[in-house]
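A.,

Following up on our hallway conversation. C-alpha cells first:
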C-alpha cells in the first residue's frame, strides 16, 4: 500500500485502528471509520481522501448493501484499495450464518466496481482473496 504514496488514508472498517496508528507513525494523514466500533462510528466529514482502504470488510456486508457501500468508498476516496476474502470464514454469526455473508467470485466483485464507472486493477488474486485498486 505504501507504494501508492497516499497523502491521506481512510481505513474503512478499521476495527481497533491498528492500520491508522501505523500510518500516522509513518507521517501519513490517516483516519478510521467502522460502524461496528462505537468510538469510530461517525462517518468522516472530509469527503475526499487520496486513498480509502477496505481490508477484509466487504465480504461481511449483506449482498443487498454492497453496491451502496462500494459507492460510499468511491465517494470518499480518489482511489480505493479493497482486499476481499472470496471464501467462507472460520467464524459464524450468532444466527448461525457464516461471518462472510457475501461470498461471491472475483468476477462478481469486479462487476460491482464497473457499475461505479471505475476501472478495477487487480493487484493480487488467489483462490481465496482478491485485492483490487479502483
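Then the amino acids I'd put at each of the 134 positions:
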Amino acid at each position: 500500500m505504501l507504494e501508492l504514496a497516499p497523502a491521506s488514508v481512510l481505513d474503512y472498517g478499521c476495527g481497533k485502528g491498528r492500520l491508522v496508528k501505523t500510518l500516522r507513525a509513518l507521517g501519513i494523514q490517516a483516519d478510521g471509520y467502522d460502524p461496528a466500533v462505537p468510538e469510530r462510528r461517525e462517518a468522516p466529514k472530509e469527503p475526499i481522501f487520496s486513498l480509502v482502504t477496505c481490508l477484509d470488510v466487504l465480504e461481511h456486508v449483506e449482498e443487498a448493501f454492497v453496491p451502496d457501500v462500494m459507492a460510499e468508498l468511491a465517494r470518499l476516496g480518489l482511489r480505493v484499495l479493497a482486499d476481499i476474502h472470496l471464501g467462507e470464514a472460520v467464524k459464524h454469526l450468532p444466527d448461525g450464518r457464516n461471518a462472510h455473508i457475501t461470498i461471491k467470485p472475483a468476477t462478481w466483485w469486479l462487476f460491482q466496481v464497473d457499475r461505479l464507472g471505475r476501472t478495477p486493477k487487480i493487484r493480487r488474486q488467489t483462490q481465496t482473496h482478491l485485492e483490487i485498486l479502483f
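The first strand starts at residue 8 and ends at 12. Curious whether your intuition agrees with the design.

B.
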